[in-house]
Amino acid sequence: MALGRILVVDDEAPVREVLTDYFATVGYAVEAATSGLEALSAVSGGRADLVLLDVRMPGLDGVQVLRRIRELTDSVPVIMVTANEDVNLARETLMLGAFDYVAKPFDFDYLDRAVAAGLARVAEKARGAVPPSDDPWKRLAHTVFRVTRAMSHTARASTGERLETVVLVAARDAAAGREAAAREQHLAEVAMLLDLAAELGDLPAADRALVESAIEAARRSLPARR
């Protein structure tokens, strides 16, 4: 089962290939579009849970495409992809409804977390802020991202980003059917980081309890040891 459907929109083939290969490898279903019109067709057809959208494109540029996507729907997060010289423009797109922006060359750790956070927001809206209950590993990932996004900047840099990274690996291993021992090890690491975050005052007790409940649900889904 894919972690989500990502639409990559860029007129440059090398960028499309890098992003498509990377996200497909880590467990997402990925579709590529070479123009704004192709992107709008995919979004209007309901084929994207999240869009990675280049700012500079011939014809319809990224800002125009973002505006039209927002006219179509407000439920699909859009992450703008930009060159360093266009970062100020990318920041302005946040006012137009973009979820986030990333600059080239890519920081894939940040891009990973931004995509996961965007998809977690989609799940919250669709389910009334309740994480999915049918897949305990997705539920764990969504719960962690929800609580870490509420952390202060210092707390996120201290323990939140580490929690996000580890829980993403755990969710991907589960989606790929990787061995239970590896997933159990990831759960132990999430629990350790959770304890550390609580001890440092990075995480309120109520949020810690939510994550602990999600950890226990994921642990119960592991096959019994013999």
Q: In summary, what is this structure?
A:
The protein has 9 helices and 5 strands. It has 226 residues and is of the alpha/beta class.
Structure description:
- The protein is an alpha/beta fold.
- The chain has two domains: 5-108, Response regulator (Rossmann fold, 3-Layer(aba) Sandwich), CATH 3.40.50.2300; 136-220.
- The protein has nine helices and five strands.
- It has helices spanning 13-25, 36-44, 62-72, 87-93, 108-126, 136-148, 153-175, 180-199, 205-220; strands spanning 5-9, 29-33, 50-54, 78-82, 100-103.
- A five-stranded parallel β-sheet has the order 2-1-3-4-5, sandwiched between helices.
- Helix 2 runs parallel beside helix 3 (62-72), helix 5 (108-126) crosses helix 6 (136-148) and helix 5 crosses helix 7.
- The two termini are 27 Å apart.
- 39% of the residues are buried.
Helices and strands, in order, run as EHEHEHEHEHHHHH
Overall pLDDT metric: 87
Number of domains: 2
> Structural class of the secondary structure composition?
alpha/beta
Helix content: 55-70%
CATH class of the largest domain: Alpha Beta
Spatial separation of the terminal alpha carbons: 27 Å
Low-confidence stretches: 129-133
Radius of gyration: 18 Å
Strand order, sheet with most strands: 2-1-3-4-5
Q: Give the CA-based shape.
A: globular
Please count the beta strands (DSSP E, at least 2 residues each).
5
Beta fraction? 5-15%
Going by CATH, the homologous superfamily of the largest domain would be: Response regulator
> What is the CATH topology descriptor of the largest domain?
Rossmann fold
Main β-sheet, in a few words? Answer: 5 strands, parallel
Query: What CATH architecture label of the largest domain applies?
Result: 3-Layer(aba) Sandwich
Distinct helical segment count: 9
